[in-house]
Write a structure and sequence with these properties.
There is one protein chain. This protein is α+β, with helices and mostly antiparallel strands. The protein has one helix at residues 15-32, and strands spanning 2-9, 42-45, 49-55, 58-71. The chain has one domain. It has 1 helix and 4 strands, in the order βαβββ. Strands 1, 2, 3 and 4 form a 4-stranded antiparallel sheet that branches. Strand 3 and strand 4 form a beta hairpin. The radius of gyration is 16 Å and the shape is elongated. The two termini are 15 Å apart.
Length: 79
């Protein structure tokens, strides 16, 4: 199962630092419990895909999609 996290930051002097800190925090949270308390067999995040989103009449927003892959097994895939 693939899920994604979307994050964006308004323009400010520390937006790049805040963005990097958030990405690192997500990575640390996932690596701290790769099974989500036993709900998954394995969880892994892919590299963030950063992009600057244009805003009419204002500075762009910094955004990223972080794909998160959840590996799990089930007795009945249709249940």
């Amino acid at each position: 199962m693939l899920r994604r996290l979307e994050n964006w930051f308004r323009p400010c002097a520390t937006r790049d630092t805040a963005f990097d800190t958030l990405c690192a925090s997500i990575g640390l949270a996932i690596s701290a419990d790769r099974t989500l308390g036993g709900l998954c067999d394995w969880v892994e995040a892919e590299a963030p895909r950063p992009v600057d989103l244009p805003v009419d009449g204002a500075a762009s927003l910094k955004a990223a999609v972080i794909p998160v892959v959840l590996h799990y097994s089930t007795a009945d895939p249709l249940a």
